Amino acid sequence: MTPHTKKPLLAFRNHSLHTKRDITRLHSTQTSANKFSIDSSTGSSESKKLTKKEKYHYLTTKDANGSKKYVKGFTMKDKKKSQMTVEDYNYSMTNAILENRLNKALKLFREMENSGLKPDIQTYTCIINEFAKRCEMDRASKWLKRMKKQKIIPDAHIYTTLIDGYMRQTDLDRAEETFGLMMERNVQPTIVTYNILMHHSVRQLNMESALKFWGNLLDAGLKSDVYTFAIILHGLGDEGRLDEAWRVFQTMQEENIEVNEVVATTLMGMHVKQHDNEYAVQLFNRFFRPSANMLQTSHHTRNVLLNAIIGPADNEKISKYYSLYKDTVSDKSKRDVLFVGANVYTYTTFMRAFLRRDNLPMVSQVYADMVAQRIQPSLVTYATLMLAHAYVPDPESCQRILLELKNNKLELNAVIYTIMMRAWAKAGRWEKVKEVYDDMKNSGIQPTKLTMEVLRYGRARSGDL
Description:
single chain; mainly alpha; Serine Threonine Protein Phosphatase 5, Tetratricopeptide repeat; two-stranded antiparallel ribbon; two-stranded antiparallel sheet; 4 strands
């Protein structure tokens, strides 16, 4: 599957929130192919019936592409603080977090306590979940301890949130420790727990662990869902194990699990990765062409299809497609099956296509066009730009990009560090290769096979072996 999203298996799912119960339900979608909700405790009733005008307002949040969107929510601004319940505060805190206003949520928590109300497990889950998503696990742990002091026992949602946070930090020891503690205390893992463990294992290129967790899931008597299969298909596709992937897909069909756009796009992507572009196009026609059961194409689906079409193309043909794309961006009345407006995925796809054809000036031009459209680059975008500089070689520019990524607190991976190592290796600076490798290890990022190949090459050329 082509790596054009931060969450390669599944684009973020947006949830319209219509009721008070819905708004206090937290939705966390992994880049992975997984979503899970933390249910709120609803037991109190409102002290008065609100009018429709009082009842609804619009919250601002962001969609998968970083664009502002509005979701309908329930407002408590007209309700007196003395009338507010724990559920009301939970709802308001969730609103604040949806609007990326964590400090406001924490202020509401203090206000709740000062009013004599006792926070419940939903209150703590709301805060712990947000810190885990931000990879601030020290703060998440402190809130867990605070919750336990109130005699509130962690449930499967809390443990799953902590496991996800540790896996995001690639702290496998703490993740396994938390999972073991969960089992020791007879808190049964949910399908979401296993999906998260599998998802992060695939992201860390550890398919053996992903398959082990899948076995554990089945041994626990749980039934695989569509996200479970999407994760396994993605991991097998990444390793080029297409025959096994199709056998897994057959198992999915035998279990009567309906194919969604994630699975269909994953199947397309694994064939694109093996340069079987013609079959990827056939799969698009099979799953997405107009029919009674047509699946909806996502940005990622379109970009996998675009990769299949321009993958074997030469510079001239790629340039023609890029001109077509720029036309659709400048004139929104123009529509094309491949393109839907300016987005980071399509720009990055063209950058990578030109990079494969050694057309470095066009790589820079596409990047400049994207920035002009005020599109925020993704990690894959930066990796592509770094590769272009590494080929020159221009390791100093790669180093500046890496520093920018760190300053922006983006989640780095082995690919970024390996590109940096390659740039220094090509420039003949072997001591810098080792320095970058040590930095990667100190950051808790596990090297890949390609990382080790670059490191061995650098050591051999420097006479260290």
